[in-house]
Amino acid sequence: MEQQIGSEGVAEIQVDEYFMGFTVEVVSKACFGNNYSGGEDIFLRIRGLISTMSSRAIFKGFPILRYIPTKSNRESWRLENEAILEGAENMSDIGQESMEQYLVDNFKNIYLASKSVAISTSWSLMFLATNPEWQDRVRAEVLEAMGGQKLEPSMLRKMKTLKMVIYESLRLYPPAPMLGREALQDLHFGNIHVPKWVNTWISVAKLHQDPKIWGHDAHKFNPERFSNGVSGSCKQPHVYMPFGFGPRLCLGQNFAMAVLRILLALISPRERSWPRAHDGEIWFGSDSNNNAEEILAEILHEQPLVRSSTPPPAAGRAHLRAGG
Ligand code: HEM
């Protein structure tokens, strides 16, 4: 976001790092009363943990592989112990070991969550840039909802097109493309036997683009499919699961949608008269009257956007392995 627009009015802007910094800041403040400088160190180490974890054998589904002291497993254990437990030291007065582990797991998820919000913001912007007609629609809607005023939480409800765009980008590029579940006991699905402690993985990305479910344009960006909400979007709306499903459903879903809508609404320019963007371009606005953090603080003050978590069914075993 630092680059200046050139004399022709067009510049290439690297936004990913900015979004990452912003979402860590927001999530840190909302969840821990911390700021980015406080959370940055933990976040950087967790980033290391994520890249180490992704080089591990998640697709093999054999839990035993997690306990073999390979180079990447050892690196992962080191990062978990030193980075996350250190990060969570403010919570150490909780006492019980399982509760501590439970908190640490949630702590990890929340930091991973910042990354998901940043990824979704980047993809939504990319789609708006490559679909100028949707960019126009979103801009017109945001301008109308705001009516030249400071962005208020109540205005977000009027930004239906923007919500449709976000839903569609979460459909095409879900930040958590695979969801994992570990069998806590032997299970049978028809003639499939899943032994105890085996992991099963659901490919959310594949479900989200199945033409049998979403129709012939399943691979295309078409936010219109969400004009009647998620329930009217396809033949089997329960397969739309960017935020997961069941008792482990994302705790920050509403919060994430609010951050995404605020960020994108504030990025949309204030000027009606700007010409239509060329394919691949997006018009950015800047408005010093509007501060995304302030608006979020107001929203958080008004309503609890992060509901309290369901305790794990068996303390210490029901760790989330994907998402956030
Ligand atoms: C676009 C942004 C986000 C996406 C796509 C996302 C997605 C997910 C997914 C797929 C899961 C796993 C659900 C399952 O296994 O069924 C999850 C879990 C979770 N998410 Fe998010 N998330 C996002 C943002 C957030 C934010 C901002 C927070 C908190 C501020 C958050 C907090 C959590 C927590 C605590 C869990 C664990 C829930 C549990 O195990 O009970 N997420 N998220």
Automatic annotation (TrEMBL):
Please provide, alphabetically and separated by semicolons, the GO molecular function terms listed in this UniProt record: heme binding; iron ion binding; monooxygenase activity; oxidoreductase activity, acting on paired donors, with incorporation or reduction of molecular oxygen
- What InterPro entries does the record point to? Cyt_P450, Cyt_P450_CS, Cyt_P450_E_grp-IV, Cyt_P450_sf, Cytochrome_P450_Monooxygen
Q: Where does heme bind?
A: C250
Q: Name one GO cellular component term.
A: membrane
Q: Which SUPFAM superfamilies match?
A: Cytochrome P450 (SSF48264)
Which membrane topology describes this protein? Single-pass membrane protein
Record keywords: Oxidoreductase included?
A: yes
| Location(s), subcellular | Membrane
> What is the similarity comment for this entry?
Belongs to the cytochrome P450 family.
Q: What keywords are assigned to this protein?
A: Heme, Iron, Membrane, Metal-binding, Monooxygenase, Oxidoreductase, Transmembrane, Transmembrane helix
* KW Iron (keyword) present: yes
Protein's UniProt name: Cytochrome P450
User: Source taxonomy lineage?
Assistant: Eukaryota, Viridiplantae, Streptophyta, Embryophyta, Tracheophyta
| Species name | Ficus carica (Common fig)
Q: What are its cofactors? A: heme
Task: Output the superkingdom of the source species.
Answer: Eukaryota
